[in-house]
Amino acid sequence: MSDGHTHHHPTPPSEAELRTKAIESLLIEKGLLSSDVIDRIIQYYEQDVGPLYGARVVARAWTDPAYKQRLLTDATAAIEELGYVGNHMRVVENTPQVHNVVVCTLCSCYPWAVLGLPPSWYKSFEYRSRMVLEPRAVLREMGLDLPDDVEIRVWDSSAELRYLVLPERPAGTEGWSEEELARLVTRDAMIGVAKVQVPAPVAGGETP
Predict the structure, then answer these.
(1) What is the domain-level CATH number for residue 49?
(2) What torsion, rounded to 10 degrees, do the Cα atoms 110, 113, 117, 118 define?
(3) Catalytic choice (2, 25, 34, 104)
(4) Tens-place pLDDT, residues 76-101
(5) Which residue is catalytic, options 2, 25, 107, 124?
(6) Catalytic residue at 2?
(7) Considering 25, 34, 35, 108, which one is annotated as catalytic?
């Protein structure tokens, strides 16, 4: 859990990041690639492919109590059961009394193996510093207003250990399949800045 100390030293870009930026600029300059295409690719990996793996982990835990226990006891091994390998992990569970949220105060360590690329706001200095100092206020600004009696726990990811939030399963999903549940789980819910929501019914009384 975060000890409340923040780091105010900006992290210089790595050699790989500098090389990637140089190649990207050259491809755009030569007309071989557009910035719109790059944005769509980044969105694809940030919001679709990567988070899908984590969503499957969450859905399995919601539907399989034995798997959930293994996940909370040894997240790295439990995640590897589903074929996703890459980070030393710990999973923390949200309950009606406790809400967990993940940050990396030092730089932007992130469970890429199950969530893909980190969102830009996760890497920002404002998020990394303020989430430790005033998590309730930051969550409210991001659209998640938690009751005062809910304890907020902030977990500080590092290169050695990365965290994934197991969100609360939303009411009204009893009897749903693992695949149906996985489609509800968002990247933000697994970071802890949002809750999993059931889509509002569309005309005819069915969910989308």
Answers:
(1) 3.90.330.10
(2) -20
(3) 104
(4) 999 999 999 888 999 999 999 999 99
(5) 107
(6) no
(7) 108
Residue 15: pLDDT band (50, 70, 90) is low
Angle at 202 between CA 96 and CA 48, to 5 degrees: 65
Residue 39 belongs to a domain: yes
Helix (H), strand (E) at residue 19: helix 15-29
Please tell me the total number of residues recorded for the chain in this structure.
208
Counted domains in the chain: 1
Catalytic residue among 2, 14, 34, 109: 109
Record the pTM: 0.76
Q: Which of 83, 108, 186, 85 is nearest to 143 (CA)?
A: 186
Closest CA to 103 of 142, 73, 68, 69: 142
Does any domain span residue 203? Answer: no
In a domain, 201, yes or no: no
104 in active site: yes
